[in-house]
Write a structure and sequence with these properties.
The protein is mainly alpha-helical. The chain has 22 helices and two strands. Helix content is 70%, strand content 1%. A two-stranded antiparallel ribbon has the order 1-2. It is globular.
């Protein structure tokens, strides 16, 4: 996988240049209609009548009429920071409009996955170390949260509005179906010649709990409503799963200590999926795994390197990073190329770096640290005010004072050369909070864009959640799990297959459980009414069919991953996808 760093850097450059190009288009393209203003968040957009929607948009045949409609009807504002419908119909021609929206969709998917991988997971890793969590507890809580962050926040954002709640539900189901069918199918086809086998007990355990989670969700959908206690009970099913996995893992460990070779092999089965790799951007957890370090960096005190040893170990990596696309500093143009690439990578990197505190030794910078803790409270105040119906100067005042005090404290209590070794919890908690904030902002804008695309194309929002949003959030699972299975031998295949089932279990129980609990809490003591969508039964039927195919075929093939399993799963998913696309072509 040596080509991944170069591919990642090229992808990073492409997305940053695309971002700059989109900004250039928005502010320099001539307006087709006077008074067109596509920027600025509507503070009443989330409270509009969700039943009205923007349904009469396509009754106008010309773009001028559609432009007038989206500007004069508040229900066409989808709650994001950008009014995509106004941008599409009033500022761009169709070809440029579609190109810009698709390019921005790719950038948002990148931001969502990259923020979770490079910031969110790093904060979780540090918190697990500070809180002294065991690898078992960390694996079933923090690691799974880091892996499922894009799906979780996309689901939470979509459930904030009744109009888009079907997007969250379908994206979780679509992502679970894609990972458990397409990713497992591709892995099975790729490793079939190696005669790789998986451990029976963990394989059956994960699929059985997967089916239980789907059965619980099916009961909720059939009932059509849920109260607060029902949502909490549904969420607690994951706690039961986590306790069961942790207990079985500990039992295997004990048997391993007594010399049971079979148990030793079984203990190699991971507790939860390998950390997510979004298009080649590895998290600290992923790098630790490649270097054969313990899960989440756990090691005994004797094995822990000193700060000097860590700095020496990081010197080769820092020298490598100073090189630009592997160019040696032997030409006169080298410095110019390095500086140009450095500035081109800033647009998507700098805003997050200036607002998310990072205290890892590899990324430590005192100026960035001081600036981040100063600006972070102000960003929180801006996000808070954007969701408030009235402008509150008190929020901005509190945010500014908190930022100023935090910046002064950080300036006088940190060193230039080394990250803080004491009082790390406030830094890690701040990084965790700001990572959540950025993930939430990105997910909110992503949902708004998908809803706008649904209005433009005349496609139901649930179809976009089931396909586009589910695929985008599952790219990391596809890359990391297939790479792990192909290059990691039998142990790597075991990790990848476990990740393909344990990850969706988390998303279904927690990724849907938390939003349902929040909505039920807002309706308490009444029930939260779940929007009716008969296509969800179809999705769950095909999904359960894929799981049953796997649980029947694999044991009958002596737990070997072969083409029978892979081709069958891919065929099930393609049949489902063809059916949904055919129905989507029928006008709603």
């Amino acid at each position: 996988m040596a080509e991944f760093p170069a591919i990642s850097k090229l992808l990073n450059l492409f997305l940053n240049i695309s971002f700059l190009f989109l900004i250039f288009l928005c502010f320099t393209h001539p307006f087709n209609s006077s008074g067109s203003n596509f920027l600025g968040r509507s503070k009443t957009g989330r409270n509009r009548d969700s039943g009205a929607g923007c349904g009469q948009l396509h009754e106008y045949s010309d773009r001028e009429g559609k432009c007038w409609y989206v500007k004069s009807h508040e229900e066409c504002q989808n709650g994001g920071y950008i009014d995509y419908l106004q941008l599409f119909y009033c500022n761009f021609d169709p070809v440029l409009g579609y190109s810009a929206l698709i390019l921005w969709l790719v950038v948002l998917f990148y931001l969502l996955g990259n923020t979770a991988a490079n910031y969110f997971c790093g904060s979780l890793e540090g918190l697990s170390r500070i809180l002294k969590l065991s690898p078992n507890v960390a694996g079933i809580t923090l690691l799974s949260l880091g892996n499922g962050a894009p799906d979780l926040f996309s689901s939470i954002v979509s459930f904030m509005s009744d109009e888009t709640s079907e997007v969250g539900l379908n994206s979780i189901l679509g992502g679970a179906f894609f990972v458990s069918s397409v990713v497992v199918g591709i892995i099975s086809v790729f490793v079939c010649h190696s005669r790789v086998s998986v451990e029976m007990s963990s394989f059956i355990r994960d699929i059985v709990f997967f089916l239980i989670a789907l059965a619980c969700l099916l009961v909720i959908i059939v009932m059509g409503k849920i109260n607060l206690w029902g949502a909490i009970s549904y969420f607690c099913v994951y706690i039961v799963y986590a306790l069961f996995v942790s207990t079985s893992h500990l039992c295997c460990r004990k048997e391993e200590l007594f010399g049971d070779s079979n148990a030793a092999a079984a203990s190699g089965s991971p507790i939860l999926p390998v950390s997510r790799n979004f298009l080649g951007y590895q998290t600290e957890l992923g790098r630790a795994a490649e270097e054969e370090e313990p899960l989440l960096g756990f090691a005994s005190d004797d094995d822990k390197p000193t700060l000097q040893e860590e700095e020496e170990a990081l010197l080769p990596e820092r020298k490598r990073r100073r090189r630009c696309l592997d160019l040696e500093p032997s030409t006169s143009s080298h410095m110019f190329v390095c500086r140009l690439l450095f500035f081109l990578e800033l647009p998507l990197y700098l805003p997050r770096r200036l607002t998310i505190p990072v205290i890892t030794a590899e990324k430590w910078s005192k100026p960035f640290a001081v600036i981040s803790v100063t600006i972070a409270p102000v960003l929180l105040a801006i996000v808070w005010d954007s969701h408030s119906s009235q402008l509150s100067w008190l929020v901005y005042l509190i945010g500014s004072l908190a930022g100023a005090i935090s910046g002064v404290i950080a300036f006088f209590t940190t060193e230039t050369s080394n990250p803080p070794t004491k009082w790390q919890f406030p830094w890690l908690a701040g990084g965790f909070l700001m990572s959540i904030t950025w993930t939430y902002i990105t997910a909110e804008e992503l949902i708004s864009l998908l809803v706008s695309l649904g209005s433009i194309l005349g496609i139901r929002y649930s179809i976009l959640g089931l396909t586009v949003l589910a695929w985008g959030n599952s790219i990391g699972d596809l890359v990391s799990n297939v790479s792990m299975a192909v290059n990691g031998g039998e142990e790597g295949a075991q990790v990848a297959i476990s990740g393909c089932y344990a990850g969706p279990v988390f998303n279904i129980l927690v990724g849907l459980g938390l939003p349902l609990a929040f909505k039920a809490w807002s309706e308490y003591p009444a029930h939260y009414l779940i929007p009716k969508d008969t296509s969800e039964y179809e999705t769950m039927g095909f999904l359960m069919g894929g799981l049953l195919w796997a649980i029947v075929i694999v044991p009958n093939r002596n737990m070997k991953l072969d083409r029978y399993l892979g081709v069958g799963l891919l065929a099930i998913y393609l049949c489902f996808l063809s059916l949904r696309i055919a129905r989507a072509l029928v006008p709603v």
